[in-house]
Design goal:
CATH architecture: 3-Layer(aba) Sandwich
Distance between the termini: 29 Å
Keywords: Oxidoreductase
Structural class: alpha/beta
Enzyme class: oxidoreductase
Strand content: 5-15%
CATH topology: Rossmann fold
CATH class: Alpha Beta
Organism: Cupriavidus pampae
EC number: 1.1.1.-
Number of strands: 8
Number of domains: 1
Radius of gyration: 21 Å
Family: Belongs to the short-chain dehydrogenases/reductases (SDR) family.
Length: 300
């Protein structure tokens, strides 16, 4: 990472903070981006980035603060410009900024939908797009995006978050395909970690309390090594992939591919579909599962 310049959005929370510190320790110059608000958009502490920058510098690292929002085209341009203005280049983007507006789908309002899509999906696109021309010119660069098993698998009360996170996985694949000819890579991490994004999980029953205690064992800083690796030149052959990091465990996620096929030479009618096609494919249907139903083993 020596000599590389990396932007980390949402850098002052648990996962982002761990990544920013680890990048700086590995020798990168880090643009610490955060707007300093709560996950619900309340407050606004512009000093959180300055404090993290001071911590990085005190440890012998190099960093600069930025408080622009990822939710606008201009804000994203300013974030990337901060790297260029201070260090003269940009080598990596870690799209970590996030928020939550959890609500069951049938109760979710427009603000709750747009607020989450704006930060996660629009923010990931805007910041990635702002860096793209510079990556093209230097013929190198790496994107690391945060997805979630809420999107990859499913979860209750997170239609906005799940849609954004699955969209990020598709966006990452498109970036990997479009930017491959410029030696630019794009990968996703689905982090399992106890952070601000998970400490609102209810624990009103013994089962829920046990799950929360298990989550607390998954420390946020353990996501950082994978992020540093994916930004580094050591990962030059890795692109278009989705990884999970779960305490001391690393997962590689599958991506959608056809699993069954049926054919009717005369063409299908609705009745024929009901009679033949669906029964033939039904054994391969996916259950309505949530992330904890699928990734249910002890992470430690």
């Amino acid at each position: 990472m020596e000599g590389k310049v990396v932007v980390v959005t949402g850098a002052c929370g648990g996962i982002g903070r761990g990544i920013a510190l680890a990048l700086a320790k590995a020798g990168a110059s880090v643009v610490v981006n955060d707007v300093g608000v709560s996950l619900t958009g309340q407050g606004g502490d512009g000093t959180v980035t300055d404090r993290l920058v001071e911590e990085i510098r005190a440890a012998g690292g190099t960093a600069v603060a930025n408080t622009d929002s990822v939710t606008t085209w201009q804000g994203a341009a300013n974030i990337v410009a901060s790297a260029l203005d201070h260090y003269g280049r940009i080598d990596g983007i870690v799209n970590n900024a996030g928020n939550l507006r959890d609500r069951f789908f049938h109760n979710m309002n427009e603000e709750e939908w747009r607020a989450v899509i704006d930060v996660h999906l629009h923010g990931t696109f805007f910041v990635s797009r702002a860096a793209a021309p510079h990556f093209k010119v230097q013929n190198s660069g790496s994107y690391v995006h945060m997805t979630s098993t809420s999107g990859l698998i499913g979860n209750f009360g997170q239609a906005n978050y799940s849609a954004a996170k699955l969209g990020i996985a598709a966006l990452s694949k498109s970036i990997a395909l479009d930017m491959q000819k410029f030696n630019v890579r794009s990968n996703c991490i689905a982090p399992f970690a106890w952070s601000r994004m998970t400490d609102s999980i209810p624990a009103t029953t013994p089962e829920e309390a046990a799950r929360v205690e298990k989550l607390k064992k998954m420390e946020a800083h353990k996501i950082a090594p994978m992020a540093v690796y994916l930004v580094s030149d050591a990962a030059s052959a890795v692109t278009g992939q989705i990884f999970g990091v779960r305490a001391n465990e690393i997962l590689l996620f599958s991506q959608p591919r056809p699993v069954r096929s049926v054919h009717c030479s005369e063409g299908w009618t609705p009745e024929r579909i009901a009679e033949v096609a669906i029964p033939a494919m039904q054994t391969s249907f996916h259950e309505l599962e949530r992330s904890p139903d699928v990734v249910c083993w002890d992470p430690i």
